[in-house]
Structure formats: C-alpha cells, structure tokens
Design goal:
With 346 residues, chain A is of the alpha+beta class. Chain A contains 9 helices and 19 strands. The two termini of chain A are 29 Å apart. Classes of the chains: A alpha+beta (346), B mainly alpha (264). At the A-B interface, strand 6, helix 3 and helix 5 of A face helix 7 and helix 8 of B.
C-alpha cells in the first residue's frame, strides 16, 4: 500500500464535506495518478467541484485527509500547497497586465527579475499569447483569458494543475479546440492535471482516468474506454448516454447502446418470445417513431409494457437494404451477447 | 433623444430648476453694488476680496474641511473592514450587520445630534470637535459600508482565491488584489463622505461651539444678519471648489460608478 501512495500525485483518504445537514462529499477515497489527466465527472451537485476545492485548499474537509506528493496537506492553506488552479470564471487580476498576471506567483516566489521575465515569456508562448503580454485582461476574448489563466497557473511549476470547468464559458467550437490544446500543454509540461467537468464528451476525449461522481460518492473509476464500454451501474450508463435498460435473465439490469441494437421487421402475426440471455438479446415490439438525424436514423420501439428501446441505425449500412420502417410496424430488436452490459442498480 | 421629446423636456426643466438659481447667485457675486440683487450693478471682484478676508468664514471653512477629512478617513477606517466582513466573512448574520450600519440613514440627524450633545458634551464634557467627529462618522458609515460593500459584492471572489492559490498569504492578497479591486468604491465612498460631512447642518446646529464653527452654519448665521453679495461670492468660491473635485472624480472613476454604488 505504501508504494501506491508514494506514486500518487495526490490522494483523498476518507474525505467528507458536510454543510449542515447536507453531505456534499461522502467519505471518498481517490488517487490521482502522477503525470496523467484525471477527470472528475458528474452532474451539478455531485461533489466534483467541492472535491477540487478541498484539494486546492479552499475548503477544509469535514473528515478525512488529503495527501499531496505523499505528504499530509489536509491543514495547509491554499498558498502553501503549490497547486495551479484555473477557475471557471478565469479570475484574472483585472488591474494587472497579462504579463503581470502570469508573473504574480513568480514574484511571491522571489524569482529574480530576469528569470521571471523568461518564465513569463515561455508560459505565454506555450499558450500562444506572447504578443498580448502588455494588454489588460478586459481587452482579451474569453478564449484568450482562459489561456492566460492557464499560463498563470503553469508558471509557478505547480505540483498539480487543477481545472474547474475550464471550458464551460467558451463557445462550442472553441471548446473543442481547447480540449486538444489542454492535452497538448499537459503532454509538453508533463503536469499532473485534475479536471472537473459535467460534459461526458469532454471527459472521454481528454482523460487518462475518469472518476464518475454522484451525490458525493464515486460511482466508477477507470480509463475512458473502460468506463464507456463497461459502465458499472445504471447511473454511469445513463450519464454516458446509454438509453436502453432492460431486466436481465437473473433479474438484474442490463443495457445495450442504441448503435449496438439491430432491428428487423416481423412479417405476419408470428409472435416471438423475448429472450435475454447469454446468447444475446431478442425482443419483439412495435415501432413508435422514426427520427432522421443526418447519418443516423433513430427508431424508437415499444417492447414490453414499460420498456422502450432506442435503436440507432447507421444509414448506408444496416438500413440501406432494409425496407423503411414506420410507426406501428411490428419488429424484432436484437443484440449480440458481447454488446449486452450487466449493470448494478444505483 | 429625438424620439423622446417628453423625457428631453423634463430633463431640461429639471436642470433649469437646479441650475438657474445657482447661476443667479454666481452672477450676482460679481456685482459692483452694495446689495444682493439681480441683474448685478456693474462688475467687480470686491466681494470676493471681502469674503476671503472675512476671518469667521475662513476659520469656519478650515474647520469644516478638517472635520470632513478626518471624519471621512475614520469612517472609511471603520466602514471598510465592516464591508469586507459582510462581503467576504461568510457570516449568517451579514444582512443584519449591514442593516445596522445603514440604519443611521433613517434616524433624523437632529436626534443623533441631541444624543451626542447629552452624552458626549454634557456627560463626558468632551469638546465640540470630538462630538461633531463622532456624529459625522455615524452618518457617514452608511455610505462607506454600502458603497465599498457594493464594489466588493460585484467583484468575483475567485480572483482572491486565485491569488491565494498562486502563493499569496491573506495579507498579501488583500494588499495586491482586494484593495485594487475596491479602488473605485473607496474613491466613491471618500467623495460622498467628504461632501456629506461638509454640507451637514443639523449636527453642527447642536454640537458646534464658539471655538469650533462649521462653514454651512456660519453662512446661515451670516445670511440671517446681513444680506450682502459677500455670501454670494463665498458660495461661488465653494462651488468652484466642488466643480474641481467633480472633474477629478469624473476623470478617475466616473460619476455613473460613484453614484451608481449607492443603489446597488
């Protein structure tokens, strides 16, 4: 166990945060892998930002301890933790120029003027804003302010870089660009990054490790592909866009991604029994709607009394040689055994 | 503006009502005659000379400026920490504390003056400068607490968090981040306090003494006894001073921000 904790850049041990009668974070254990980008993912109120603020030192945990580089930092104020934080609102100092913003933490560290200037230039170059050094934050666009906030946090060579919903205030196109940008910066600097987001696409694309949270608890931890292909429970599956939930053979819950379902028109009245088992899934039903979504066609099938299945058909593959389906058509929905994922209810 | 003739008309009437009487005073102060009348008889600066050499005015002006400066500084000294506590202290009682410090606005100043007269001057036998100073600080606190508080409430607390995260201790954060963020509010509060203190009559009526007389009351006394153009000349000088302060204020912070702060 001791080797594991020295490997982790940061560690939560039994961390709780309680406000009055509401529990924001409920006894979580967490290890942040050195040199990796870890995402805390979940809906609002799941405790992800609270966890980040505890890691940064802005909130004292009600219980538990926080280790940074294997050293207990639970009682350290933020200024003693050496972490670089990027806030959702960027939080640049409005009265200082961009260069002075980036230099702020270096002045406190009493870096000689020459080294300071060099570091500021290097960090602004890293985010591609060297030419704006003398402007004030107000003169910059949201995306540029975001980069300054990144440069300012990186300049102090932090033990961890903490990003609180860094992309949520940017427009859609810029957001996609910045995902790659942050990954590039992380790769170039080798920093350990903790990112908080409610956007599952962002988490899937950017993370080395994902921590899915709900109501102050950790629901699942793993690499994006582990979490995406094998969600541990209904909540994680729901959050990652799974839509089809059925009872399995042993009474447990199973799910299949919409794109892993096939649909076939049934001719005649030949009723078939639904079967969900080790050899896959086969369910009869009635089409309730067909929606055209560019490359996909989404067919909604009402199967049993309270089971509705969503099937995503990729146009040009399965659906091309099939006759078009319409509401009211009797169909049979099937999936291969390998695509059927068992879940625990949570 | 051309699409709103009624509003424009009201604005013109409003400004006219405020400015025209003042213009009468300013113009009549340049009279060469002996009485305060309009139109003035000829042009001279004689009443300005008289005003500037009339010691009761000059003494009272000095007293009022001193009182305004000291009470403004002290009101800021008390008010800013209170505003910080309310805006940043995460206290459940913050709204109550805020109401408490704003409450002097609804207490008649004569009542405050009377209380101070009884307690400070009669019971404690302190002199009238101390009593006036205490009274002025009380009536200025609502402005300093509210105006600096408004600037703080509008600023993003994560800016201060960012400073802490970058390694600044609480005091360094206050000095290098919070204080610069508060600057417009501090200037507004200082100007408003200075003007409020300088113009105050009710407290002076009760608390001033023969040794310490404030300017507005001295003017009032003078007008009651003699009605000559010297009072107009003095008023014109004060207005000139006010205009200079106003220009500085507009250049540094802007009026909208100064007076906007009260309503936020």
């Amino acid at each position: 166990m001791s080797t594991v904790s020295t490997l982790a850049a940061a560690e939560f041990r039994g961390i709780s945060q309680v406000y009055g009668s509401s529990v924001a974070v409920d006894d979580i254990d967490l290890q942040i892998q050195r040199g990796a980008l870890t995402t805390l993912l979940g809906p609002s109120g799941c405790g992800k930002t609270t966890s980040l603020r505890m890691l940064a030192g802005y909130l004292k945990p009600t219980a538990g301890s926080i280790l940074i580089d294997g050293v207990d930092a639970t009682r350290l104020p933020p200024e003693k933790r050496d972490l670089g934080m990027v806030f959702q609102s960027y939080a640049l100092f409005p009265h200082l120029t961009i260069a002075e913003n980036v230099a702020y933490g270096l002045r406190i560290r009493k870096l000689p003027a020459q080294d300071r200037a060099a570091r500021v230039a290097e960090c602004l170059e890293l985010v591609g804003l060297g030419h704006l050094a003398d402007r004030k934050p107000k003169a910059l666009s949201g995306g540029q302010q975001q980069r300054v906030a990144l440069a300012r946090a990186i300049a102090i060579r932090p033990k961890l870089l903490l990003l609180d919903e860094p992309l949520s205030n940017l427009d859609a196109r810029l957001r996609i660009q910045m995902r790659a940008e942050i990954r590039r910066i992380q790769a170039e600097t080798g920093l350990t990054v903790v990112l908080v987001t409610h956007d599952q696409d962002e988490a899937l694309e950017m993370s080395d490790a994902m921590v899915v949270m709900r109501a102050g608890r950790i629901m699942q931890t793993g690499s994006p592909s582990e979490v995406f292909t094998r969600p541990a429970n209904r909540f994680v599956a729901d959050f990652l866009g799974y839509e089809n939930f059925l009872s399995g053979p042993d009474g447990g819950l199973i799910t299949v991604r919409p794109e892993h379902l096939q649909v076939r028109a049934l001719d005649g009245a030949g009723a078939i029994d639904s079967s969900v088992g080790a050899d896959g899934l086969l369910v009869p039903g009635t089409v309730t709607s067909v929606a055209y979504r560019g490359t996909d066609e989404v067919v909604t099938v009402s199967a049993a009394a309270d089971v509705t299945l969503t099937v995503a058909l990729h146009r040009g593959s399965q659906s091309a040689h099939l006759p078009p389906l319409g509401p009211g058509d009797r169909v049979e929905v099937s999936a291969h055994a390998g695509d059927v994922i068992p879940l625990t209810e949570a | 503006m051309r699409s709103r003739p009624v509003l424009l008309g009201l604005a013109v009437v409003g400004y006219a009502v405020m400015i025209v009487p003042i213009l009468f005073v300013v113009v009549s102060s340049f009279t060469a005659g002996k009485t305060l009348s309009f139109p003035p008889q000829g042009f001279s600066l004689q009443w300005f000379e008289k005003a500037l050499s009339y010691t009761p005015f000059i003494d009272a002006l000095g007293s009022s400026v001193l009182l305004a400066i000291v009470s403004t500084i002290l009101a800021l000294g008390f008010g800013v920490p209170v505003a910080l506590g309310i805006a940043r202290g995460r206290m459940r009682s913050a709204p109550i504390i805020q109401s408490f410090f704003v409450s002097p606005l609804i207490v008649p100043e004569l009542v405050i003056g009377l209380a101070l007269y009884q307690q400070v001057m009669i019971t404690l036998r302190l002199d009238s400068f101390v009593a006036l100073l205490i009274g002025h600080i009380v009536i200025l606190l609502p402005y300093t607490v509210r105006v600096t508080g408004a600037t703080l409430a509008l600023s993003d607390t994560s800016i201060e968090d960012a400073a802490r995260g970058l390694g600044a201790g609480p005091w360094h954060t206050f000095r290098t981040v919070t204080l610069p963020l508060m600057r417009p509010g501090l200037i507004s509060a200082a100007l408003l306090s200075f003007i409020t203190s300088f113009n105050n009559v009710p407290l002076s009526l009760l608390l001033q003494s023969r040794e310490f007389r404030t300017f507005p009351v001295t003017m009032l006394d003078y007008v009651q006894q003699s009605y000559d153009p010297m009072i107009a000349a003095m008023s014109t000088l004060i207005m000139a001073g006010t205009v200079v302060i106003a220009i500085i204020a507009e250049r540094t912070v802007g009026f909208a921000r100064i007076f906007g702060g009260i309503n936020q």
